[in-house]
Write a structure and sequence with these properties.
Elements: E1 8-14, H1 18-30, E2 34-40, H2 43-49, E3 57-60, H3 67-74, H4 76-79, E4 85-89, E5 107-110, H5 116-197, H6 206-237, E6 245-248, H7 249-267, E7 270-274, E8 281-284, H8 286-303, E9 309-317, E10 322-329, H9 336-339
Parallel strand pairs: 1-2, 1-3, 3-4, 4-5, 7-9
Antiparallel strand pairs: 6-8, 9-10
Helix pairs in contact: 1-5, 5-6, 6-7, 7-8
């Protein structure tokens, strides 16, 4: 870092030696900066009689070799931490006595090397270094405060995550319990609807059959929603398994065709199935494929107008060695923004 030009400096000189006082006085007179200085003999006097914050720098005369004198200089950074300090030494070989305070005293200058130019540069260096140290202390203090706030935020976040995790587990347990509790009465309802619909409890006219078909379809819808809730719970827990084996696509579609036709009839939809018998076998989970295709067809039913046409078809793609299953309807379709969300997990 380059040195800056000092225009006016207020200096406090601490020395009880006349030779040091005269030397500092003459050197300050030769500096480029306009120096105002005041001399005091003891550190305690300076601290008791002066507000040291009014000074720009501190010059300390060379301490003797007695332990008490070195200790007095050692107290400088603790008592005058904000004031740049220059210590005048007797000779170059006295440096070891400053090892303990080297990180806080900015400049050591030998009295035999002290000139106006040397003191000018020393003052610039001491003031710049002290300013840098003050800035470092300020930034360090801000950093510690931010680290403390970050630690507090992390603790609060961990507590919130713990509560959210507990709520999530409670929600999963609630869904599991409710889903299983729904299954038994729903099964009974569906069985009794089928018994009445088939005439086993007495004659049923056409209007009654239509109404029972509606009830049966809605019961199937409720059963499907329960299965979806259980699948989501299993998926979140990592327990949703896939059982893949060689399957016939035609058989998968035929098994779900009657239920889909009944649902289409209740909703007033024309439903057609086009599935050749000669389709090759595919390696898949038949239950999951049936679930997915059923959802696609039901969505087509809901989005089609009254007396709309929905087609479920399957065809072989020999080029890619695959069987394609498709659902075609005349509904409004999916807008571009919603298409980006179709395959996202649990998207709204």
């Amino acid at each position: 870092m380059g040195t800056c030009c000092l225009h006016s400096v207020r200096v406090l000189v601490l020395t009880d030696t006349l030779s040091d006082s005269d030397l500092v006085r003459s050197c300050l007179a030769e500096t480029q900066a306009k120096c105002e200085f005041e001399q005091l003999g003891r550190l305690e006097q300076a601290l008791s009689e002066r507000d040291v914050r009014q000074y720009d720098a501190l010059i300390v005369g060379a301490p003797g070799r007695e332990p008490t004198e070195v200790e007095e200089t050692h107290r400088l950074p603790a008592r005058l931490a904000e004031l740049p300090a220059i210590v005048i030494t007797d000779s170059d070989d006295q440096e070891p006595c400053f090892d303990a305070i080297d990180t806080t005293i900015q400049v050591h200058v030998s009295r035999y090397q002290l000139t106006g130019h040397t003191l000018d540069r020393s003052l610039q260096h001491a003031i710049q270094r002290q300013h840098s140290q003050c800035e470092i202390r300020r930034l360090t203090s801000e950093l510690k405060a931010r680290e403390l706030r970050l630690d507090q935020q992390q603790i609060a976040l961990a507590e919130k995550n713990g509560r959210l995790g507990q709520l999530h587990k409670t929600g999963e347990l609630f869904i599991d319990n409710v889903s299983h509790e729904f299954r038994t009465p729903l099964t009974v309802i569906k069985d009794y609807i089928a018994l009445v619909r088939d005439g086993l409890a007495g004659y049923v006219n056409d209007e009654q059959c239509r109404m029972l078909d509606i009830a049966a379809v809605r019961a199937d819808d409720l059963g499907q929603m329960i299965d979806d809730l259980l699948d989501i719970s299993k998926f979140d827990a990592g327990l949703l398994g896939v059982w893949r084996r060689n399957c016939c696509v035609t058989d998968i579609i035929r098994q779900m065709q009657l239920a889909l036709e009944r649902k289409a009839r209740v909703m007033g939809i024309t439903f057609e199935v086009n599935c050749p018998d000669h389709l090759p076998q595919v390696y898949c989970d038949a239950e999951q494929v049936s679930h997915i295709v059923g959802n696609l067809v039901f969505n087509a039913f809901r989005c089609s107008a009254d007396s709309g046409l929905v087609q479920l078809w399957a065809a072989e793609n020999a080029t890619d060695k695959e069987v394609v299953i498709g659902v075609t309807d005349r509904g409004p379709g999916i807008d571009d923004e919603a298409r980006q969300l179709i395959f996202q997990v649990h998207s709204d």
